[in-house]
Amino acid sequence: MKDISILLILLGLAGAAWWRPWLGVLGLAVLSYMHPQGYATGFMRNAPIYLSLFVWVSLSVVYRLWRDKAWATLPWQRLLDWRLYGLLGLWVWFGVTSYFSVAPWEAWDKYHDVLKILPPMVLALLLIDTREKLYYLLVAIALSILLVALKGGYWAVLSGFQDRVYGPPGSQYGGNNEFAVAVAMAIPLMLLWLRETRDRGLRIVLLVGIALSYASVVSSWSRGGMLALGAMTLLLVLHSRRKLLAIPLLIALAAVLFVQLPEQWFGRMETVAAYQADESAQGRMDAWRVGIDFAARNPVTGGGFNAWPALTLSSASGLDWHSAYVEMLAEHGYVGLLLWAGLLSATLLSLSRGGRNRPDWQRDYAAMLQASLLAYLVGGATLGIAYWELPYHLVALAALLAGLSPTHRNRIGAG
Questions:
Q1: I need a labelling partner for 65 at 20 to 30 A (CA). Which of 166, 278, 314, 389 fits?
Q2: Residues 6 or more apart whose Cβ sits within 8 Å of residue 235
Q3: Contact in structure between 70 and 33 (CB atoms under 8 Å)
Q4: Is the separation of the CB atoms in 196 and 251 below 8 Å?
Q5: How remote is the C-alpha of 140 from its chain's centroid?
C-alpha cells in the first residue's frame, strides 16, 4: 500500500509539472525533503523517483519552449548571479580534488552524486520568476519537513521526550542529529509561511506545527541540533518586529518543554560544556585532528571525497569527520574550505544588505533565509553535512530573492 501511495504521489507531481513546469520544481523539493521513497517496502524502494521527475520536468520545459517559441522569455540573466558562479566554482574544485584524491574510485562516485544538486538549482533559477512562485517553493520545502517534524513532535510529547526522534529512512537527515538540524533550518520557512497566510485556521495549524517542530528537535537529543536551534531562534528574535511578544512566547514554550524532559536529557546536554569527559565528543575531536593534520600536509587539494577510510587506515567507511568544516578541509583542502565557507558566508551577509531600501516582504524573506542558513552553519560545526542539498537550495533561493523586483505586491494574494 505504501508503494502504491508513493507511485500516486510521483504521478501527481508529474502531472502538475506537465501542466505548469514550475510546479515540477516544487515537486522535486517535496521528493528531496519529505523523502516519501524512504518509506517504501516493495517495488518503489529502489526506483529512481527523483531522477524520473527531474527528467520529466526538463522535458516539460523543453516542450513548452518549443511549442510557444519562448526561449527568449526565460530569465537567462538569473544565470549571471554571482552565487551560481560560486556554486560552479566549488563544483569545479570538487572535480580537481577528485582527480588528485587518495581514493579516486570512491571520490568520483561521490562527485557524481554531489553533482546532481546543481541541475535542479538551475531549473529553479529559470522557472521561479515571481514572488508568488518563490513563496510556494518556500512553502513546499517547509511543508515537506514539517510533515516529518509533526510525526516526531507528536511522538515526543506522547512519550514524554523519552525516545529520540529520527528523520525519513534513507534521507540526508535520517539520523537524529541530522534531523534536528534540518528541522531547525525549516522553522524559519514555516514562520514565513505563517506570516504570509491570512487563513485563521491555517495559522493555528502552523503555530501548532512550529511548536511540535521545536519539540521534535528537543526530543532528538542532539546537542548540535540544540545549538543550531538556539542560534536560529536568537536571530529570529533579533529580526522580530514584535520582540515583546516573541520573547514571552518562547519562554513559555521552553518552560513547557523543559518541565517534561527526563534527567538523562539534561545530562546529555551538560556534556557540551564538559566535553573532556564525554566519549562521543572525544571521538569527534580525534576525527577533527586527523583531518586538520592531513590538510596541513596537503593544504591545496586535501584527500578528495570519501577520504575517511584512507586517511584513518580504517575499514569503517560509515564514519565521517563529524564537522562540515573539517570535512571540507580534509577532503578539498584550504581552497575548497574557503570556496565553500565564502559562498555561504557571502550569501548570509548579502541577505542582511538592503535594509530599509527593501520593501517589508523582501526583508521578511531575507531574514528567514538568513536564520535558516545560520542554523546550518552552526549545526554543521559538529556534523558532516557539507554535501546536503538544503543549504545550496537556500543559496539559490537567496539569488531568486535578489532577482525579484521590489515592486511585487506586499502580500501573497493581495489585490
A1: 389
A2: 367, 370, 371, 374
A3: no
A4: no
A5: 13
pLDDT at 410: 47
Contact, 334 vs 295, CB < 8 A? yes
CA distance 388 to 140: 17
Model confidence at 223, in pLDDT bands (50, 70, 90)? confident
Which positions ≥6 away from 176 have C-beta within 8 Å?
Answer: 164, 165, 166, 167, 220, 221, 222, 225
CB atoms within 10 A of CB 51: 11
* DSSP letters for 232-271: HHHHHHHH-S-HHHHHHHHHHHHHHHHHH--HHHHHHHHT
Q: Which residue has the cell 528541522?
A: 183
Q: Are the C-beta atoms of 303 and 100 separated by less than 8 Å?
A: no
CA 140, CA 132: separation in Å to the nearest integer?
A: 12
CB atoms within 10 A of CB 159: 13
Strand, coil or helix: 314: coil
pLDDT confidence tier of residue 413, bands split at 50, 70 and 90: very low
SS3 content of the chain, % helix, strand, coil (to 5): 75, 0, 25
What pLDDT digit, counting tens, does each position of 150-195 carry? 988 888 777 777 778 888 887 888 888 899 999 999 999 999 999 9
Q: Quote the mean pLDDT of the chain.
A: 84
Q: What are 62-107's pLDDT values in tens digits?
A: 988 888 777 766 777 777 888 989 999 999 999 999 999 988 888 9
- Alpha helices for 261-409 (secondary structure H): 263-270, 279-297, 308-312, 324-350, 360-379, 389-403
- Look up the pTM and report it: 0.88
Element (H, E) at 118: helix 118-127
- Residues 370, 376, 377, CA angle at the centre, nearest 5°? 85
Return d(Cα 46, Cα 158) in angstroms, integer.
Answer: 33
Handedness of CA 344, 350, 352, 358 (dihedral sign): negative
Q: Which amino acid is at 326?
A: V
At 245 the pLDDT is: 62
Angle at the Cα of 176 (from 171 to 179), degrees rounded to 5? 55
Detail the DSSP E strand segments found in 145-250: none
